[in-house]
Amino acid sequence: DAKTTQPNSMESNEEEPVHLPCNHSTISGTDYIHWYRQLPSQGPEYVIHGLTSNVNNRMASLAIAEDRKSSTLILHRATLRDAAVYYCILNSPNAGGTSYGKLTFGQGTILTVHP
Amino acid sequence: GAVVSQHPSWVICKSGTSVKIECRSLDFQATTMFWYRQFPKQSLMLMATSNEGSKATYEQGVEKDKFLINHASLTLSTLTVTSAHPEDSSFYICSASRSGITDTQYFGPGTRLTVL
Fold first, then answer.
1. If pLDDT is split at 50, 70 and 90, which confidence band does B55 have?
2. Beta-carbon neighbour count of residue A42 at 10 Å?
3. How far, rounded to the nearest angstrom, does the alpha carbon of residue B109 sit from its chain's CA centroid?
4. What confidence category does residue A91 fall into, taking pLDDT thresholds of 50, 70 and 90?
5. Do B107 and A106 touch (CB under 8 A)?
6. Contact A42/B109, CB-based, under 8 Å?
7. Taking every pair of C-alpha atoms in chain B, what is the biggest distance, in angstroms?
8. For residue A94, what is the nearest residue in chain B, using CA coordinates?
9. Which residue of A has its CA nearest to B105?
10. Sign of torsion, CA B53 B59 B62 B65?
11. What's the CA dihedral at A4, A8, A11, A17 to 10 degrees?
């Protein structure tokens, strides 16, 4: 399976932007980049996903490198409610893709937001 | 939209008993449902994938006779932990997707199982 690498932890101050990096150097051409986050004692929550182009939604933005070997999740103004573990995961809709159909959760990045 | 519920949210049982956990998609029909397990301070581990009306596909190392999965309808999947033992104590989380295994997954809130 194509794997992702994320920093173990990051810190931010409230109302400041946060850039969460993810490396996926072995990504295949059909792998989508998904981001989920998990608050303590809760199930994960979908954040955003993309393939090649940058993506924006109400929660965050996803910036994907031109070679697709890395991506960055951007929280434009962090709030205390954004403190969570953020997971960057590859998933492929193509049966020949390296990550077909499954979400393989790594250790993720623990984001701490300071008031 | 895309709300998934689980019941119960927590359960305590005696060793040797069986426990059933329900996972429901409340506002959409789920073609595929997934069951994960998460031990303290660890990440989620996929246990099995189920499609409505067919047998579940279990991940390597997961005992299918111990963790019974029934996906009886497009809105309900159940996980039964049979003859539970203390080592089965964990956080069990389900997820559901509309269009199959490669669609976005929407997760339930999880069920905390404690086996005494």
1. confident
2. 15
3. 11
4. confident
5. no
6. yes
7. 39
8. B102
9. A46
10. positive
11. 0
